[in-house]
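Bit of a strange request maybe. I'm writing a small parser for structure token strings and I need a real example to test against, not something I typed by hand. Could someone generate the tokens for this chain?
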Amino acid sequence: MRSGRRKSTQNTGIHFIHAGDEWYLLAEEEVPEEERYDGYLQLENGVGMLRLLFNEFEEGYAKLESGEHQEEISLATAKLAYPYLERMAKKMEEKYEGLKVHTYCIRNDFFGERITVSGLITGQDLMKQLKDQPLGSRLLIPCNMLKMDEDIFLDDFTLKEVSDTLQVPIDIVKSSGQDLIDAILGVAGPNPTDIDENQMKDRRITTA
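Reply from user aminoacidic:
Good idea to test on real output. This should exercise your parser:
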């Protein structure tokens, strides 16, 4: 694949051939730098999603001032995004004294362990795997775990049912790295109906 990509870059000026983010996860390699994605032409196919998310986070993170934020919270995601979200959560802990973020990798038992994207995590998998875990004052989940414009998971459990079972308020994280920062600091709205559909359309399945 790398040789084919080099040839297409020489001939056309763009990389043309891209691997989905999951291939880098399976190979235990870092996703490529931003310039390799040619402006994220295949974002809707899950190509470059993690790089875009991490770069957005880094841009927002650079503007933050160190301080104190006394709160313990939790963040749930799937296997694909987990290493990057855990890294971002740790950076937020380093920036803010008193902040503790538990980052949980949710295994997809409903559709099968080979499914690694957060957009296919169900309410029952969240409840089963987080029931006995420390969750703090809030649980953050990405908006793509819910059906479009609804507060319902793919297995028809409602957001309220999951929240009541886990006995913790659930905040919905939108798409971008800045959205993640805002959600961790508690300045983002928890209502999934507030999500901008245009902002979301290319990230529903593969985002964190």
